[in-house]
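quick one, 105 residues, struct below
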Amino acid sequence: MGTIETPILSRFRAALDEVYGEQIERVVLFGSRARGDARPDSDYDVAVFLKDLTSFDREAGRIAEIGIDILNDTGAVINAMPFSAGAYEHRTGLMRELRREGLDL
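---
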């Protein structure tokens, strides 16, 4: 898996690090931005893998707040969802896509 860094993604990752610290297992960009076929107005699809995901709804809300701050400042839309750390190895279609096309942040 490769890596990617842009000002928007760097800001998003820094905000995640501030909120979650060592709880982050990995953060993966996927979709058109990871594949390199995004349009300028394409959103950023991001999977946030947390070591201790006790409440999906709570963490989805916290992550969405970070995305909203970035949207308000830059106009960039970040669609990010939390996953438990072990989910990365699951055999679902989404996880196969993440392993195949995803880029670590």
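The mean pLDDT is 94.
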